[in-house]
Amino acid sequence: MSHNTEQRLVYMANQIGTFFRAQGHDQAVAAVANHISRFWDPRMRAQIFAYLSEHGGEGLDPDVKEAIEILAKKAKTVA
Amino acid sequence: MALINEIDYGTPEVKSDKLVELTIDGTKVSVPAGTSIMRAAMEIGNHIPKLCATDSIEAFGSCRLCLVEIEGRAGTPASCTTPVAPGMVVKTQTPRLKALRNGVMELYISDHPLDCLTCSANGNCELQTEAGVVGLREVRYGYAGENHLNDKKDVSNPYFAYDPAKCIVCNRCVRACEEVQGTFALTVDGRGFNSRIAAGQNEDFFDSECVSCGACVQACPTATLMEKSVYDIGQPEHSVVTTCAYCGVGCTFKAEMRGDELVRMVPYKDGKANHGHSCVKGRFAWGYATHKERILKPMIRAKISDPWREVSWEEAINYAASEFKRIQATYGKHSIGGITSSRCTNEETYLVQEMIRAGFGNNNVDTCARVCHSPTGYGLGTAFGTSAGTQDFDSVDQADVIVVIGANPTDGHPVFASHMKKRLREGAKLIVIDPRRIDLVRSPHIEATYHLPLKPGTNVAMLDALAHVIVTEGLVNEAFVRERCDPAEFAAWASFVAEQRNSPEEVEKITGVPAETIRAAARLYATGGNAAFYYGLGVTEHSQGSTAVMAIANLAMATGNIGRKGVGVNPLRGQNNVQGSCDMGSFPHEFTDYRHVSNDAVRSIFESIWGVKLEKEPGLRIPNMIDAAIDGSFKGIYIQGEDILQSDPDTKHMAAGLEHMECVVIQDLFLNETSKYAHVFLPGSTFLEKDGTFTNAERRVQRVRKVMAPRNGYEDWQITMLLSEALGYKMPYKSAGHILDEIAKVTPSFANISFELLDKVGSVQWPCNDKAPEGTPVMHMGTFVRGKGKFMLTEYVPTDERTGPRFPLLLTTGRILSQYNVGAQTRRTANVAWHEEDVLEIHPHDAEQRGIRDRDWVKIQSRSGETTLRAEITDRVAPGVVYTTFHHPMTQANVVTTDFSDWATNCPEYKVTAVQVSRSNGPSEWQEKYREMSEQNTRIAERLDAAE
Ligand code: SF4
Ligand code: SF4
Ligand code: SF4
Ligand code: FES
Q: What burial letters (b/e) apply to B485-514, b meaning 16+ CB within 10 Å?
């Protein structure tokens, strides 16, 4: 996995978070999680989950990090 | 099959609820009030001789051939200019009329070269026909007098010639250019006998304002204005009605044929999108179908640096299938994917996604609409519940205020632009929001009330400022919002836009547009009557593309400008079938009708019909595929009719991604740029060689009809079927119509659509089902598809692509009239005469600072790369902004565009790139390297014919 794609995913996730930020914390977290699970292919999600656990989600905006944590947890329980 | 000859009623249809009854030649007839006698007569099949009248333009009354007698009235009025009256009794044929018409005809003929037998219009000339109709038997004046028989022909236009010797000065061409096209290129020069038609001031057609739409050629009753192809081939003998394959307007044409040779394309009057009009592309630029560079044999190669080897269809298909199978066995099921094309039919698109979902066993399918209108799908889907425009084109006839934002209709959607211009000449007000002074801002008899030349990348700030004015000045349509929208969401939105930072005074600092102009435009939009938004890629191709679409939807809802004729939110789609390719389930996360793949009920419909288990997780989008290729998890791709290397942003990144793949299969007409990285080339068919449907920008599903056998051997959907079968997933379709039947079965909004229905009614706009058996011209009437309209908070976020000392200018990109997209087709027609190369538009001030003169070679450089092209100095662009097109591969404008993209859909941000421009003395290093690679990778070694 290249560092480049990781950075790009972080960037994309933050972009999504920026749009939903205006809706307030709770709604924003839910909306980001929903957007990522609806539009990101599983390998992209796996990459961002891995990034989260390896780098502690460095560079991810707080709402976005929270959303990804929720998704990661859900993915684990399903698996 | 015969030649379709549409009835010419002489004068345009009049729309009136009031009917008038009169008697013509003893027969009673009722027509709408205001109709001409000429048209009323034709309604009962009585043709009144005419020369200066035709039903695409208003009557003029100059030729005096159409005289009639009316009981109780003196004289013999012209029937084309005389409206019907209740109880009128008209005679169209009497001895007096016959004598008068004979005299008129005689004068015309005495100044006409009587070379009918060798004339290109022979058999299809109204002068000839009317001479026969009036019974002209002799011409008393002789032919020795003064005449125009030796006037010089103007053959400067690549597609039609003007032969003044044959002109009868009926003025039809002049009026067609004014009324139908709206260009006002033609005038009548001189007076009386000396009068002649002139294009501009002492210019030939090519150098004049003429945009080569062909309206004058169509209106001309003689051979004076005539297609060169008719000169060359002769008059056609049969015709087939089909749909243009260029832009999202979706004009209907008659393909007029002689045997299996196409003689000309003539716009079809009954076409619901174009009403008999056309542009230079659809009308004339079809020569690419027989261009010598078209590839007609399949080809394969092991490495992209190898020369191509022509092989049989069987070998090519088996090779592609075995490679895909090998890749999946080695790297896993998700290591391959495919791309559908907005140029192909709905049926072909549907099959490609079916092959990928059911045959490849994954959801790695995307479409080139990703890079243009994916934000439209997301934005309008979120706000209203349907990923499509809300109106039909005819709705513009009832618009009082037209807002054009990020679109250049006269170049991108010319036939709709002509329609819009007609409405503007009738008095509708125009607001243009665009960094460039597009032609619409000021053109003959049209002037935008407001032009808001905002800085590229600031649409959302501008739209929020318009909303700010509407909310804070009390211009909201409270009743509409109360009834139709979610109140809590509206309240949140209203207080958001009302914040001071969204005021025009603050936004002026961001957009560069004076606050007062923003306020005035907002007031006009909210209070000027029916107001309609028309937008294009200048809205979607931004990092906030989806946000801007939602901001437009917010404005329409807040002012109640949605849900009836004359209003709405209208995306102008780029390619012919962008709407259709999105509708057909081309996106990795959704099936037809925009239903998410995770929806178990929807998946089970497809599972039962296709007989395989389907994945419920979304697949990769195009940019993600490329990233995954570079990462090593994506290794093979099937691309139908799309040139991602030239059309997608950040060419170098794209090239690297393709280079990492082990099997790239291209199905196209020409060795396009992407094919330089391909291992299998499957020759595709043109729209003239296939059956199917396209869906235009107004959701109109229209037939594409085969007029000749595919020169490559197969229609594109057949090729997909072959590949799918070789992969082990056999499809059952017998015809394109059969595929459409399946689409109808699985897609609620297509439920009633079939070839049979389309053959019967011409075209329908989806949704077309039991609730709307004849389709739906205007959506969201009464209630939104999603229930309550959804206001979204659309915070302006500046793009991360910023100017700075190294890259101080903003580059934005677009297209021009004569060329289409990556130019693969139009560059292979005489249209190149209008656009030999891409040029860089730069403001005189910026040019001077850099010592750049007009036509100089300049280097344009961004963070991604650099390229060179020639400069054109113009104040069409604002200082600080430069503009270019991307029609030519060697320019490679996308070498400089970045991989920034829309937050919701990854639609690339083509419209904003920070660049520096400087003088240069020739092509860049990348261009040189690319040229070398190009030559190397497009060699064709063995021709099959020679080998056989
Ligand atoms: S081709 Fe079109 S633009 Fe040109 S002169 Fe004729 S009507 Fe006008
Ligand atoms: S060019 Fe044709 S349409 Fe125009 S005035 Fe002459 S005859 Fe009429
Ligand atoms: S390119 Fe568009 S406007 Fe031109 S003829 Fe074709 S569909 Fe019509
Ligand atoms: S057709 Fe009526 S005056 Fe020419």
A: bbeebbebbbebbeeebbbbebbbebbbbe
- Are B927 and B892 in contact by the 8 Å Cβ rule? The answer is yes
Supply the pLDDT for residue B216. 96
Segment B597-656, tens digit of pLDDT: 999 999 999 999 999 999 999 999 998 899 999 999 999 999 998 888 877 777 888 899
Quote the mean pLDDT of chain B. 89
Nearest CA to ligand 4 atom 1: B50
Statement: residue A1 has pLDDT above 50? no
In this predicted model, what pLDDT tens digit does every residue of B694-722 receive, in sequence order? 999 899 999 999 999 999 999 999 999 99
Write down the ipTM of this complex.
0.86
Q: What is the CATH number of the domain that holds B879?
A: 2.40.40.20
- Measure Cα distances from B665 to B26, B578, B643 in Å: 68, 22, 12
Chain A residue with CA closest to B620: the answer is A41
**Residue B326 and residue B324: Cα distance in Å, rounded?**
5
Under the banding of pLDDT at 50, 70 and 90, the label for residue B946 is very low
Ligand 3 contacts CB of residue B274 (under 6 A): yes
Residues spanned by the domain of A17: 3-78
A15 touches chain B (CB under 8 A): yes
Q: The domain containing residue B65 runs over which residues?
A: 19-133
Could you tell me if B362 and B391 lie in one domain?
Answer: no
Candidate from B218, B247, B815, B816 with most ligand 3 atoms within 8 A of CB, to mutate: B247
Q: Is the whole model's pTM more than 0.95, yes or no?
A: no
Q: What is the mean pLDDT of residues B579-589?
A: 90
Regarding whether B438 and B328 lie in a shared domain, the answer is no
B817 touches ligand 1 (CB under 6 Å): no
Question: Quick one: pLDDT band at residue B823, thresholds 50, 70, 90?
Answer: low
- Please answer yes or no on whether B619 and A41 come within 8 Å at the CB atom: yes
Note which residues in 895-924 of chain B have CB less than 8 A from chain A: 899, 903-906
The number of domains in chain B is 5
Name the pairing type of β-strands B186-189 and B196-199: antiparallel
Instruction: Verify whether the Cβ–Cβ distance B631 to A41 is below 8 Å.
Output: no
Residue B801 maps to a domain: no
Together in a domain, B608 and B686:
yes
Contacting A residues, span 18-77, partner chain B, CB-CB under 8 Å? 18-19, 21-23, 35, 38-44
Shared-domain flag, residues B387 and B420:
yes
Residues B865 and B926 placed together within one structural domain of the fold: yes
The nearest alpha carbon in chain A to B363 belongs to: A41
- Bridge partners (DSSP) of residue B784 are B787
Minimal CA–CA distance to B170: which of B211, B123, B107, B219? B219
Q: Which of B708, B731, B765 is the endpoint of a domain?
A: B765
Per-residue pLDDT tens digits for B134-184: 887 777 766 566 667 777 888 888 999 999 888 989 999 999 999 999 999
- How far apart, in whole angstroms, are the C-alpha atoms of residue B786 and residue B687? 35
What is the C-alpha separation between B634 and B620, in angstroms, rounded?
10
Residues of A in contact with B905 (CB under 8 A): 39
Domain count, chain A: 1
